[in-house]
Amino acid sequence: GGRIMSTEELNDFLGLGHDVSSESKRAKRAQFIRDVNRVYQMRHGKEMIVREKDLNDRRRTIYVIHPCSGTA
């Protein structure tokens, strides 16, 4: 029921270009997800963005973004 994004797609969404180091991208993605999930958790009692391992390639992470509920 949610949208699935790869790490690269999430980086693009967040505006993290090639000039940003891999470690900075990782830290900024993690902070963004924590911030979104903290607010969504308070309002709806669950996380909006969930990290999962790609079933086809366990080295890759995919991000499942659940549809917004109400006014979130």
Question: What features would you describe in this structure?
Answer:
By secondary structure, the chain is of the alpha+beta class. The longest helix is centred in the middle third of the chain and has 23 residues. Strands 1-3-2 form a three-stranded antiparallel sheet.
Task: For the structure shown, list the relevant keywords.
2 helices, 72 residues, single chain, 3-stranded antiparallel sheet, alpha+beta
What is the secondary structure topology, with strand pairs?
Layout: E1 3-6, H1 7-13, H2 22-44, E2 49-53, E3 61-65
Antiparallel strand pairs: 1-3, 2-3
Helical proportion, percent range: 40-55%
How much strand content do the residues show?
Answer: 15-25%
Mean pLDDT, to the nearest integer, reads 89
Major beta sheet, specifics?
A: 3 strands, antiparallel
Spell the H/E element sequence: EHHEE
Ranges with pLDDT <50 over ≥5 residues?
Answer: none
Over all CA atoms, what is the radius of gyration?
13 Å
Helix count, per DSSP?
Answer: 2
Which sequence of strands runs across the widest sheet? 1-3-2
**Total DSSP E strands:** 3
Give the overall silhouette: globular
SSE-based structural type: alpha+beta
Report the span from N to C terminus: 16 Å
What can be said about this structure in brief?
The chain is of the alpha+beta class and 72 residues long. It is 42% helix and 19% strand. Strands 1-3-2 form a 3-stranded antiparallel beta sheet.
